[in-house]
Amino acid sequence: MDRRRFLSLTTATGAGVGMATVGFGQAAWAASYPYFNRRVPDEAHTKMGELAPYGITSFAFTPSNGWVVVTQDGRFFARGIPDACFAELGKLTKAGRRIHCVAFPPEGGDRWVITTDKGVSARGIPTECQQRITASYGAGKQVVNVAFPPAGGNRWSVVDTDGFYVRGIDDECYQMMRNLTQGGRRVTHVAFPRAGGWAVVAQDEFHARGIDDECYQQMGKLAAGGWQLHNVTFSPTGGWSLCSRGKVPSLPADRVRQVENAVRDGGIWQRMGYWKTPGVAIAVVTGNRVAWSTGYGWLEAGSGAAAHPETAFQAASISKAVASVGVLRLMQTLKKPLSSDIRPYLGWPLPRRSCVSADAVPTIDLLLTHRAGVIGRGSTSPADVCSGFNTTAGGGFAGYGPNATVPSLLQIMNGEGNSPKIELTTDPGAEYHYSGAGFVLLQRMVEQQTGLSMAQYMDKEVFAPLGMKTSSYALSPAFELASGHTSTGAVISGKRNRYPESAAAGLYTNVLDLCGLVCYLNKAWTASGDIAGPLSKESVRTLLSKGPQPDMGRGLFIAGSGTKNFSFTHDGSNYGFTSVFTGYPELGAGYAVLANGDNGNLVGEIAASIRSTYGWA
Q1: Torsion of CA 417, 410, 422, 455, to 10 degrees
Q2: pTM score, two decimals?
Q3: pLDDT bracket for residue 33 (50, 70, 90)
């Protein structure tokens, strides 16, 4: 059975389970340190019972069902392992080396690796794996675990006392290794069953996929007794073994697990299933740096590619917030005020309805705050009305599917795409109407004034200076991209719609880039003067200060002005994608959540869990 599990052991108590007998004559627990075997050779089980009181550091199987068990004080016993490996174990233990790990590549033969407290001995393992292990020791780190997936070849996992390194393993396994280490934990053990699946252990937590049900249950029993899971081993014949050599150490609170578990009614995995969202990425900022970042689930339902913090999602209307940074950069460069009338910058006559005053002035500032009289998609019909607009249906764009011709920006402005023409519908400044169309005009201004596309301009003036290497307003950037999904969890046609209305809805980005932007804006807001980046301190203050719309800066919604919980934020919803990001300048904090599902409730629930865990208003 497939399992996802995050289990905290730090609050568990008890002295473990007493001696019991289970199927195949395998004793379940030793009197000192617990262990559990199922379908392993009888002699191996007997020797584990004899050696468990001394603290087992490694129990491993060869591909031909040979085995070896080693203790922390240098005792070992082996049966059917390569002669050279057995001889090397004797030499190392006689020399006083502590054996951390013995492992055997799935190809069999005279292939093995032994890692110790002072170095490595190996034969016939993948060259790159050997190099990685050697590099760890060269950097003063000890390798505590080496594991090889059953497919063989250059596929391996190396865990040292500081981190882990992998090649060619299951992508979700890698995803969860990263996830488990984000909350201040270290991966300590990785294991791969011969029939597929994997198990990852990180001090007081573990995660498994596709392993034997009983093995999974017994891992939970060890955890419930407060024991640290030190060794997970799978035999080539479908057997398995678990053992511990001590209780879980005292560890600080794991913020990542706290956030995951506090997501409404069951935790993040349950809520992803409930909202039929295959993939999510999260990053959290504290102290104006990314404190942790994680991915959950899949880039696309049914695929083998996991979502990671580096994965690019459509950010939807967060595009407006990021584009606003570019607009203020342009006005700063042109040395023009935001109070400027946008029409001279467009190279296009902006129409107005007959009821709009002839002397109406749609300023750049009003466009940035959705008060310029440009009403968005869904609220402009019929074309001759000047009141009674549907304020809940406007603002967005539908995008263009795989078989649709993508219009030019000018065609969109003239109403020749799948949205109404852009025009002044109400007097500028008189009313608030959330308006993607207004940001299309801002995009047109940027392109007309710079001679660059929105994508080129933002790359040059915003993304490059801020190191946002996986952010783009291009229609189809060359990043690893998540696929969008309907509210039923099905992949949308074409995987992603295209949005030539770039400034309004066309941004691709990842949570690390968004949190990098959060850090920049936080620091620029609180700095005594200008800092490196696209905007001056004055421009950042304008961006994040109340403008013509009371709850907005420019392109960003703000709350708590003048308090320590002052924040800026924007969310987004494109077909198949939802998103939110928030910054707290006075706290040096923030977060970003990107999801490839069509229901925005999930990102809201995750954001609420982050705020609750950290105590942010």
Answers
A1: 90
A2: 0.92
A3: very high
Q: What's the pLDDT band for 12 if we cut at 50, 70, 90?
A: very low
Strands (E) in 219-346, as ranges, are 231-234, 240-243, 279-286, 289-297, 313-314
Contact 106, 148 (CB under 8 A): yes
Task: Give the C-alpha separation, 72 to 60, whole Å.
Answer: 15
Amino acid occupying residue 353: R
N- to C-terminal Cα separation, the chain: 40
Q: CA 544, CA 546: separation in Å to the nearest integer?
A: 7
Q: How many CB atoms lie within 10 A of CB 393?
A: 13
Give the tens place of pLDDT for each residue, 34-90. Answer: 999 999 999 999 999 999 999 999 999 999 999 999 999 999 999 999 999 999 999
Strand, helix or coil for residue 109 = coil
Mark 239-262 as b/e (b = at least 16 C-beta within 10 Å): bbbbbbbebbeebeebbbbbbbbb
How many Cβ atoms are within 10 Å of 154's Cβ, its own excluded?
A: 11
Tell me the one-letter amino acid at 383: A
Q: Two tokens at 584?
A: 């707290």
**CA 514 from centroid of its chain's CA atoms:** 12
Of 114, 108, 110, 109, nearest to 93 by C-alpha is 114
pLDDT value for 27: 39
Q: Read off the pLDDT of residues 183-216 as tens digits, 9 standing for 90 and up.
A: 999 999 999 999 999 999 999 999 999 999 999 9
| Angle value at C-alpha 425, between 422 and 427, nearest 5 degrees | 130
Q: Please, are residues 429 and 437 in contact by the beta-carbon 8 Å criterion?
A: no
260 in Cβ contact with 222 (< 8 Å):
no
